[in-house]
Amino acid sequence: MATTSKLVLLRHGQSTWNELNQFTGWVDVPLTDQGRTEAARAGELLKEQNILPDVVYTSLLRRAITTANLALEAADRQWIPAQRSWRLNERHYGALQGMNKAEVREEHGEEKFMEWRRSYDTPPPALADDHKYSQFGDERYAHLGEDLPRTECLKDVVTRLIPYWYDNIVPQLAQGKTVLIVAHGNSLRALVKHLEGISDDDIAQLNLPTGVPFMYELDDTMKPVTQARFLDPEAAAAGAAAVAAQGK
Ligand SMILES: O=C(O)[C@H](O)COP(=O)(O)O
């Protein structure tokens, strides 16, 4: 009988720059108190619904790592193995990192704002290496050398994330394990696009809430056999609407 496996995706809880409505990307900002509460609630939902991760994957950014730690503590699963990779990082927002979303929309207009924020293959302008919000020289990315991103579009995220999905995450799922990935709005949008075969145009409509886990059951070809299910649908709908409204 074909085995299915459970994949749980969780965007980090609210961060300080989410609260300030600033483009964040690879800038390593912490969670707010609300974000910490969201993270713990995510873990409670996992426990209440008996969805018990066997392994967790996070980006190299503290807002995801802290969210994973708080959720696993609430789910009493802190002991499971964890793997971390830059390939799960948020999309690099280039020269927009640190800028206020409403101000960018005001200054450049709705069309350009949405093109930089939600188009599939148009990245924002690149971030200069000497900019205060650049990751140039950050030890955790030293191995990337000149390949360190200075900006990314969603297509770039798909290109650097999907090999990690196949090389590191799929083998765990193929063993029937329950996998938890704690990452970011756009890195998770890239993975959802791949899993659900969403078109380059239609993916612009997808916004993910902070701190609400959603789950797929996958077959042995890693295709979803169930629709994505948010463990708290009301909170998810409210959160996604708030993300869509950012910058308005
Ligand atoms: O990096 C950021 O600014 C957010 O995490 C994602 O922002 P977005 O929803 O505007 O892409």
Automatic annotation (TrEMBL):
<dbReference type="InterPro" id="IPR029033">
    <property type="entry name" value="His_PPase_superfam"/>
</dbReference>
<comment type="pathway">
    <text>Carbohydrate degradation; glycolysis; pyruvate from D-glyceraldehyde 3-phosphate: step 3/5.</text>
</comment>
<dbReference type="InterPro" id="IPR001345">
    <property type="entry name" value="PG/BPGM_mutase_AS"/>
</dbReference>
<dbReference type="GO" id="GO:0004619">
    <property type="term" value="F:phosphoglycerate mutase activity"/>
</dbReference>
<dbReference type="GO" id="GO:0006094">
    <property type="term" value="P:gluconeogenesis"/>
</dbReference>
<feature type="site" description="Transition state stabilizer">
    <location>
        <position position="184"/>
    </location>
</feature>
<feature type="binding site">
    <location>
        <begin position="90"/>
        <end position="93"/>
    </location>
    <ligand>
        <name>substrate</name>
    </ligand>
</feature>
<dbReference type="GO" id="GO:0006096">
    <property type="term" value="P:glycolytic process"/>
</dbReference>
<protein>
    <recommendedName>
        <fullName>2,3-bisphosphoglycerate-dependent phosphoglycerate mutase</fullName>
        <ecNumber>5.4.2.11</ecNumber>
    </recommendedName>
</protein>
<feature type="active site" description="Proton donor/acceptor">
    <location>
        <position position="90"/>
    </location>
</feature>
<comment type="similarity">
    <text>Belongs to the phosphoglycerate mutase family. BPG-dependent PGAM subfamily.</text>
</comment>
<keyword id="KW-0324">Glycolysis</keyword>
<keyword id="KW-0312">Gluconeogenesis</keyword>
<dbReference type="InterPro" id="IPR005952">
    <property type="entry name" value="Phosphogly_mut1"/>
</dbReference>
<feature type="binding site">
    <location>
        <position position="101"/>
    </location>
    <ligand>
        <name>substrate</name>
    </ligand>
</feature>
<feature type="binding site">
    <location>
        <begin position="24"/>
        <end position="25"/>
    </location>
    <ligand>
        <name>substrate</name>
    </ligand>
</feature>
<feature type="binding site">
    <location>
        <position position="63"/>
    </location>
    <ligand>
        <name>substrate</name>
    </ligand>
</feature>
<keyword id="KW-0413">Isomerase</keyword>
<comment type="function">
    <text>Catalyzes the interconversion of 2-phosphoglycerate and 3-phosphoglycerate.</text>
</comment>
<feature type="binding site">
    <location>
        <begin position="117"/>
        <end position="118"/>
    </location>
    <ligand>
        <name>substrate</name>
    </ligand>
</feature>
<feature type="binding site">
    <location>
        <begin position="185"/>
        <end position="186"/>
    </location>
    <ligand>
        <name>substrate</name>
    </ligand>
</feature>
<feature type="active site" description="Tele-phosphohistidine intermediate">
    <location>
        <position position="12"/>
    </location>
</feature>
<feature type="binding site">
    <location>
        <begin position="11"/>
        <end position="18"/>
    </location>
    <ligand>
        <name>substrate</name>
    </ligand>
</feature>
<dbReference type="Pfam" id="PF00300">
    <property type="entry name" value="His_Phos_1"/>
</dbReference>
<dbReference type="InterPro" id="IPR013078">
    <property type="entry name" value="His_Pase_superF_clade-1"/>
</dbReference>
